[in-house]
Design goal:
4-stranded antiparallel beta sheet, alpha/beta, about 350 residues, 3 domains, about 15% strand, about 45% helix, 11 strands, Rossmann fold
Length: about 350
Amino acid sequence: MARPSTGDPALDSLIDGLLDAAGAEVDRDQLFDILASGVALAGDRSDRLDLKITNAALKEMRAAFNVFAPYRDVSKVTIFGSARTRHDDPLYAQTVAVAKGLADRGWMIVTGAGPGIMEAGMEGAGRDRAIGVLIRLPFEGGANDFIAGDPKLVEMKYFFTRKLMLMKESGAFVALPGGFGTLDETFELLTLTQTGKSVPVPIVLLDTPGGSFWKAFEELIAGQVEANGLISPHDRSLYCVTDSVDACIAEIEGFYRNYDSIRFVGDRLVIRLRAKPTDSELDQLNQGFGDLLAGGRIERTRPLPPEVATDDRLDLPRIALRFDLRSHGRLRQLINALNALPSAPAPGAKPPTVTQQAKAAT
């Protein structure tokens, strides 16, 4: 791999000296590029507002990374929902119940840390299992009482950096009915998953029993978006709509029943599993999912050299395929099929940590 450079040997030497003085010993290539980008801004035609945005975003991400770092090996679920939901709204109680059910199973709950659904998520999780990512708004009073003053709380100015942290660290997502902000977060999450910019994750759209919010959402998606050819019919497999707390938790845990994680190695997609599929199961998978292949077959494989080099889930069985990159809805259906194989273990397995997911994403 080529050594990073600004193109100016004198500047390169100064940046290397800064990294030496800071005691940087690992990932120096990435740190070098971060500093080089900052230096390059000095020679660009960036105005003060551009620089203030860059400065604030970098500071916010650094602060958030530090908050999440001690919990990288803990499975997390992010809950989205409205800040306007009242305590006496059935949605509030539904959120408390799903957050408590997940926390009792070992998950941490990540929310926006404000009132309404966010507060309900914190209440259900309990302070010890809650992480808050608060957006600073002039008309809201700061963090809710369940997370205020806790070291697991970070405050952010920008929605885009906040959404990054709400999505980057979690292995599952639950969206309750909400307004523009909730819909923005839900659609961005679906977009990231549909386009492969995020690894596959369970996404549950949860309502109260008899609620119509997500039913209306499904009618819009099926009757307008899919019907007009704006998404593939398979893309609706990327999410699950339910009004049951038990079904929500089962969807999340069931996603990790057999599936563990993915990683691209060259043009091959490697799917790590908890149980090795049999020959007959592989034949069935090839018959059922040949359309998502860009060539060849779905095959068992040993860990590939790049996986070995990074000690990446080497203990797990895996399959490999040449994946059609336009078929992420079908990929989700393949994961569902892998989880339903007779060889799959019993439900209840925990997802990989954020560190393992990061390897998959890169």
